[in-house]
């Protein structure tokens, strides 16, 4: 989201074009100035103009025709233009949800049934995927990675199950180490274990540091993959108060640790799903120090670290770890490709246990996708790809936030994510998000009800929505329809 009240140049240009459409100067089907022409006319860089046009395209004002340029969308009527103009202008955003206050008691975890049913429904009959946990696949360079995949197959190299026993393929490990070094974390290749996505990394790390019946501290709300791991291993979860801007309350965690044993802590310090916050540096340092003082392992989920909206890559808890107590987990599923499910972990002092568990659980990670991703990273272009993805996600975040703020009922609160691709939305207390989920699904719209993100029913009136998909008339209609459902439920 915007961090300054000063309006960016790209947004100013987008407003000017929208105003021209609204006034009739530009009519449906008219061609808009080319990027180069607009750059000269307005004295802006080509990059700024491209960003403005991407925003206009995402909001449905214009559309691009390959080799022809940009045109005002024929179906974009005067009412739609008026809405877009309002949404693109500077205005106060809805308030954010407050800090969570869960009860300081451990609980059994039973969310898998709800999550499985929700995930199955996402692509059911071409449903609108506002409830999807994955970013829009169109953001990823799928064709290029497939080309590397094909080239590797044609080369005839070894691809057997035993060719990449843990820790994983050396080429991919080398690229992961290099990437961490570029983003401020110096590690040794021997620190890395390749996994089947971040989900396996989290499960292996949790299995390495705790046993059935142990209590694990988590954020509240927390990403349901964390709860899955706890449930799968027969452990208990205790939810820690969490602020939508600052993250987990370190003082509250310390107070709980002084009254009951906590076997481990599972956190997502950067662009947490569903809240979207980036934990401040001092809080990160304090959390790692607390873990070291009480010999409490910390499992750090960093799958969204590359999707930041700021100017610099966020730091990680692992950077403050001097005793090997932080087990860092990540994957390429949210930043490069979700099709291959390639992840990794830096398990610190628990490396031997994690590598052994990896061998016992899945033997090895498929060789071909490891090599294909390694080839892509070696060739370069990853940072250019990420810059485009971040810019697109930020624009789509602004658009969806504005539409929700305009059309959802009074009292709705929305997070202001610092990265990632999801919004956490607090609806009026009367709303039952599971009832909304079922009603929306019946009309081909998916959302993620708040029940999935906690061991309790504390988030009964909350939903999570994915804003990564290209803004289309279908998505706009889905937002408006959800607003109508909410209005009816409030009556």
TrEMBL record:
<dbReference type="InterPro" id="IPR015421">
    <property type="entry name" value="PyrdxlP-dep_Trfase_major"/>
</dbReference>
<dbReference type="Pfam" id="PF00155">
    <property type="entry name" value="Aminotran_1_2"/>
</dbReference>
<dbReference type="InterPro" id="IPR036388">
    <property type="entry name" value="WH-like_DNA-bd_sf"/>
</dbReference>
<feature type="domain" description="HTH gntR-type">
    <location>
        <begin position="7"/>
        <end position="75"/>
    </location>
</feature>
<dbReference type="GO" id="GO:0003677">
    <property type="term" value="F:DNA binding"/>
</dbReference>
<keyword id="KW-0804">Transcription</keyword>
<dbReference type="InterPro" id="IPR051446">
    <property type="entry name" value="HTH_trans_reg/aminotransferase"/>
</dbReference>
<keyword id="KW-0663">Pyridoxal phosphate</keyword>
<dbReference type="Pfam" id="PF00392">
    <property type="entry name" value="GntR"/>
</dbReference>
<dbReference type="InterPro" id="IPR015422">
    <property type="entry name" value="PyrdxlP-dep_Trfase_small"/>
</dbReference>
<dbReference type="InterPro" id="IPR000524">
    <property type="entry name" value="Tscrpt_reg_HTH_GntR"/>
</dbReference>
<keyword id="KW-0805">Transcription regulation</keyword>
<protein>
    <submittedName>
        <fullName>Bacterial regulatory s, gntR family protein</fullName>
    </submittedName>
</protein>
<dbReference type="GO" id="GO:0003700">
    <property type="term" value="F:DNA-binding transcription factor activity"/>
</dbReference>
<dbReference type="InterPro" id="IPR004839">
    <property type="entry name" value="Aminotransferase_I/II_large"/>
</dbReference>
<keyword id="KW-0238">DNA-binding</keyword>
<dbReference type="InterPro" id="IPR015424">
    <property type="entry name" value="PyrdxlP-dep_Trfase"/>
</dbReference>
<dbReference type="GO" id="GO:0030170">
    <property type="term" value="F:pyridoxal phosphate binding"/>
</dbReference>
<dbReference type="InterPro" id="IPR036390">
    <property type="entry name" value="WH_DNA-bd_sf"/>
</dbReference>
<comment type="similarity">
    <text>In the C-terminal section; belongs to the class-I pyridoxal-phosphate-dependent aminotransferase family.</text>
</comment>
